[in-house]
Structures are given as C-alpha cells and as structure tokens.
Amino acid sequence: MKQTLAVLLISLLIASCSAEPGPAPTPTLEPVLPLLPSATPLAAAPSPAATATPVPLGRGTAEPGGTPGGGTAGACPTGSGATRLRGLRYGVNIVTNDPKILQPLDQARDMSAGWVRATLRWSDLEPQPGAYSWGALDTLAEGSQARGLRLLLAVTRSPAWATASGNGGLPDKPEAFGAFMGALAGHAAGRVGAYEIWPAANSAAANGGTVAKPAQYAAALEAAYTAIKRADPCALVLFGALLPAPPNTPDAADDLAFYRGVLAYNGGETRNSYDILAVQLNTSGVLGKGNWSRANMAQSRQFYGHVYLIRDEMTAADEADKQIWIVRFGYSVAGQFAVMPKQQAEYLTKTIDEARKSNPWISAIFVRDLGATPTADEGFNLLNPDSSPRPAYMALRDYFAGHTPQEQAAIAGTDLVLLWRFQPNPYPKPPLALGPDGTIYTISGGYVRAIDPNGAFRMAVKPGRKYLPGVAADSQGRIYATGDNGTISAYSSGGNFAWTTETDGTAATPLLISADGQTLYAGTDKEQLDAYAASDGHKLWSAPLGGIPGAPALGSDGTIYVGSSDGALHAIGSDGAPRWRYPSNGWVRAMPAVSGPTIYGGTDTGAVFALDAGGTQRWRLELGAETIGLAGGPDGTLYATSANGTLHALAPDGAPRWSTPLGGGRPTAPAAGPDGRIYVGAKDGRLRVVAAGGQIAGSFSLQAPLSIAPLVGRDGAVYVAVGDRKDAVVAFGTQALKERYNAP
C-alpha cells in the first residue's frame, strides 16, 4: 500500500507539474519563461574569437553571478578541485510565465532572498539554429541585478530543429546544446550566477515523452559545462535536479540509479562536468525528515529526508566533496498533502533552520514560489491569489533577514578583519592541520572536519569515538587520522572510507605524513614511534623511544625528530633506524622547529636549544618557564612562548632579540605569518597579533579560552580554533582576502 502511495505521489507530481501555457505539444515539469513582448530581434551567434579561454573554478571561489552595477563579485580564481561556497544561500523560485516578471523580483528582494531561480526554454531563445532572441532573458537578468539578486537559470526544452522528432527532449547532438549554452553564458556573463542543466531529466515529461538514458543526459551536461566555463568561468554549473522517483515509477527513472548511471558514463568523465548537485525534494506535508520503513527505502522520495540518501549516494560515489543546492522545496496549502497557511510558514522556516545548522554540505535552498499569475501549483505560492502575502512569506522574510551574515569585526590596530566563522566545531583539542592544497582540518568529538580556505565545509569523517590524536592529508586530498580506539583510518578526498588498521598502542601524538605522502608516523603510549604505509595502512617499522613521545617533526631529508618523556630528543631515519639521541634534560613535548640543517627544541623545564644535523648542540638558552611552542619566522627568527605568558624572539645563533609579556594567562604555541607578524592565543580568550619588532599590534577577544595554536594558511589567513562550548573555527585576514572569499 505504501509503495503504491509513493508511485501515486510521483505520478501526481508529474501530472500537476506538466501543464504550461502556449501551444507546445509536449508538457514540461515547471513553469517556464516565454518570450515577452519586449523581446529583441533575432541576433547572430557570436564568433568563436569572441569567447574567453576556459578557466576551471577552484577552491575559494567568489560568489558567482555579478553585483548590482555590473561586474562579477570578486575574482574568480583558477585551479583544480571542487567548487564550494561558504554558508547557506536563501533563494526563491519565481513563476515567469507572465509579463509581470518584475513583481516577483521586487517581492524576492523584499524577502531578503539573495537568489532567484527561473526556468527558461532553449526553444524560446534559439528558435532557429544560430539565431538568438535575448529579450526575455535580458528583462529577467537586468531586473535581478538591479535588485541585488543573483540568478539561477534552469534550462530545458530543445527547439524543434534539435531533435529528429521535434518533441522538445534532450538534443540529438549534444554539441548543438553546448553551442547554445556557450552563447547564453557569453551574453549573460556577470549577470547570471548559475545554470541548472535540464531539471527532471529522469522523467519522460522532460524528454519529449520518453525517459532518457543516463548517457543522453551525461553527454548534454558535459557539452553545456565546457561551453559555459569557456564563456563565463565564474558561473556555476548544476547537475539538474532529478525528479524524486522510486524504482518502477511510470514515466520516470529511479533518481538514484539515474545519478549513478550519469556518473558512470564514459569511464566517469561526467564527474568533472558539474560544480554542484541540484536536488528537488517532496515533503508530503510532513515537518522534518519524514519517516519510512527500512524495508522500503523507496518511500524516502516522499519526504525531505531523501536528501540524506542522496548525500549517501554522493559519498559512496566519492563525490561528497561537492555541495548540494535544494532548488525546489515547499509546502502546499492545497491538494492531497495540504497544510494550513500557518503550518506552511512554520514548516518552511524550521526545515531551513535544520539544514543551516546541521547540513553544511547544503549551500543553497530555493523555496517555492513567487508569481503574479496563478498556476497549477499555486498552493506552493507564498502569495494568496490576490497577491497578498501568506504567513510563509512574512516568516521567510524575517528568517532570511535575521540569518544573513552581517558581522564586520576587525582586529583594531591591524589590517585584519574577520573572514568567516565555521560552526559547529565542538570541543577542539588537537592542533589544526593544514593540507597541501590549503584545506584546514579540525578535530573534535571524534570527527575530522575539512574546511576550505574560504570557510566552506568540505566533508566530515568519524574515525574515533570521542578523541582523535591527529590528522594528516596528502596532496590528493586523502585524509588519515588516528583514533582513540587504537586505529589509523584513511578516507578518500570525498570522505569515502578506504582502510583502517590497528596500532600498537594508542596514538599519543599528532599524525605526521612524509613529504611524498607515502608514509605515516605516529607516536604511541607504548613509548615508540611507528611508521605505516599510506597505501593500505600496513606497519613498516617501530622505533623505541624510552618514554612517551612528544609531537614529531619532519626534516627536509625525511628524518623524523621526536622528543620523549625520559628527557631526550631523537633523530630517526625514514627507514626507522636511530641516527642520534640528544639529552635534552627535559621533555621536548612541543613539536621541534626545523630550519634547513638546524633543529630547534624546547623543553618542559624551560630550555630552548639548537642542534646541527648530526645532533651536536649549537646553543642552549634557559627561558625560566616551560616552553609551550616554537615557530620559525620568514627571516630565520625563532619564536617561543613560555608558560609565564611571554613571547620570546631569538636570532638563529640563540641571541635574544626581544621578549614581550603577553598577559592573559597560559599562551598557546605561536604561529608566524609570511609578513613577519606573530599570532598567539591565550587562556583569556584573546588572539594577539605581535609585530616583528615585538610590539603587540592588536588583539581580538573570542570569549573562550584558547589552548590550540593559531594556524597560518597558505594565503596568509589566520585560523583559530575556539572550544569551551563556543565551538567554532574563526578566520582572520586582509580585506582583499575577504573580498576574494566574498565573506560574509
């Protein structure tokens, strides 16, 4: 009975969404944008010379789509890797099948929605090959831009000349669709932020009456992606939202199976042909995720909770480094699953709030609908038939306005401003780690969370129960973590589990990875340093230390330097053979600092020392209190914090340059920036910025004790982990970085 209901629901959705005005013989799934009376004359296609060289989007991408007054919102950096955006964008679907298009745009702006989504037809914009009519597009794009709205265009329905049957389905020749999308993106560059390619491609209604094969859609998506990136590198390309259809649905393919089929096309090349996965969700009038039997998972398609199965599918396919945009989501006040108008308001805001707090892999939600003309789906409209606002309109307006980031904090006395805050990050304990590509890894509550330099969530994995001693990443984005359950685990760059192996004892140090990414090093409570193969986790060797290890450091020649609680610093070769042992007369608990042939160490008894590559002491200095941490500056200066709240600067020969009392209780280890500034946290919760000459240039209160050393990123940003129930990673940087990241 429940399976029958699921199939009936999908069938009703197809039927109710299929009606559209105009003489088109084949229905589509969404209200679309017809030509308005103001349409411009047909224009010839641009010459190939007029298009730009393709540049792939990279991590840290600025917000796409242009700003009021023209131009794109910040630079569009190049590079490889998935595009991820920080935070949650709020958008609304606009009904565009009438000439009153500016009215829903005014209402979207009034609602504080940053984005609008509209559907247009290829058949309207290129009725004849190579001749374009941009009037309707220009009205929409210019109207959106003038109101500070970014635009997501969902593109569907081919012109009659593009298929042998003339039925409006996916084109017979994908290159024809690519040529159109290139012309469209070139004409709309800087005014359209994102393109959704052929929504509901798994339904017969979107393909001229027959269900498309995944290969058909994959070819069209690839052609569109290549052409769009060539014409407008900053525009995002979305894998079109599939109709949530369970197996054996009439006139639609199983959406999860269809997605798998597209990813498998031609050896997986389609994985590189979209930036973000668009998702359409049903709610069945139920607040929250919804409930379905594990014995019948197909019922998930009836509910919002289907997004979790989609996310699982992405993770299994190693695509979890991409984000999701929910592009069609709402509650109807009419029909089979009707809710009361006040419930529509409550359910929408509560569901969006849950996504904002718990699903950082969702970076946009577009609710339904705004439009002046009644449609078959007017129950989803946020307006009454007389265009007066429903309670949902008012509730969403308040919610969007209240949850749009407005924070403009800065560190007084410096050029540093707050770039972003990432939450949640409860109870961070081990140090932050930096990947070769600039990714920040934070450990808390048994989870490793990966954050892009622009503050966007990449993924999370859970290798332990409550505590993880260390994490490392290689140049391919693979993650390795030691757990409190006596294991080392490995995950792909998308968060997919790769392997796990038991350790000889429980890891007691941060995890170290060799320069070539082939070997992992971990010190354990068995008083030894162990090496493991990164390929499969098998143990390579163990080196006894005679005491509990401190944090290890890696030399340029592959030598590992690690202190032990028996009062020694050890040099161990990459093959596990001991090279030398220096009697430090104290525990070198903090990570040694390595600068060329010189190794610096600090002890819990208050000494700092320098050794040459052979382990011979060059100099030794007593600071008078436990050495908390060391950091090397760009000019060779060694910085050390001591437990008495002092930051020391030492020349390479050990000569003191200056000592600055920091105040605020026990400090963290220092971090040195590329411009010579030093960053130190303290028990009083303040991040201090110290100039190269020793003066405290400024400080910023994070309102919770800081125990983890700040981390300086590859772009000069400074990252601070805040715990004690404040559960955040906070980033500071220059205004130029803020503009690049488009934060807030």
Mean pLDDT: 86
Q: Count the beta strands.
A: 42
The CATH architecture of one domain is Alpha-Beta Barrel
Rg (C-alpha, Å) = 29 Å
Count of alpha and pi helical runs: 11
Low-confidence stretches: 1-29, 31-61, 67-75
Largest sheet: 8 strands, parallel, barrel
Looking at the chains present, what oligomeric state does this protein adopt?
Answer: single chain
Tell me the overall shape. elongated
Name given to the CATH homologous superfamily of one domain: Glycosidases
Q: Briefly note the CATH topology name of one domain.
A: TIM Barrel
- Measured by DSSP, the beta-strand proportion falls in 25-35%
Terminal residue distance? 48 Å
Query: Strand sequence of the main sheet, in spatial order?
Result: 2-3-5-6-7-8-9-10
Which structural class matches the secondary elements?
alpha+beta
Topology diagram in text:
Blueprint: H1 2-18, E1 43-44, E2 89-94, H2 102-110, E3 115-121, H3 122-125, E4 131-132, H4 135-146, E5 150-156, H5 174-188, E6 194-197, H6 214-231, E7 236-242, H7 255-264, E8 276-280, H8 306-316, E9 323-329, H9 341-358, E10 362-370, H10 391-402, E11 417-422, E12 433-434, E13 440-444, E14 447-451, E15 457-461, E16 470-473, E17 479-482, E18 487-491, E19 497-502, E20 512-513, E21 519-524, E22 528-533, E23 539-544, E24 553-554, E25 560-564, E26 568-572, E27 578-583, E28 593-595, E29 598-602, E30 607-611, E31 617-622, E32 627-632, E33 638-642, E34 646-650, E35 656-661, E36 671-672, E37 678-680, E38 686-690, E39 696-701, E40 711-712, E41 718-722, E42 728-733, H11 735-741
Parallel strand pairs: 2-3, 2-10, 3-5, 5-6, 6-7, 7-8, 8-9, 9-10
Antiparallel strand pairs: 1-4, 11-42, 12-13, 13-14, 14-15, 16-17, 17-18, 18-19, 20-21, 21-22, 22-23, 24-25, 25-26, 26-27, 28-29, 29-30, 30-31, 32-33, 33-34, 34-35, 36-37, 37-38, 38-39, 40-41, 41-42
Helix pairs in contact: 5-6, 6-7, 9-10
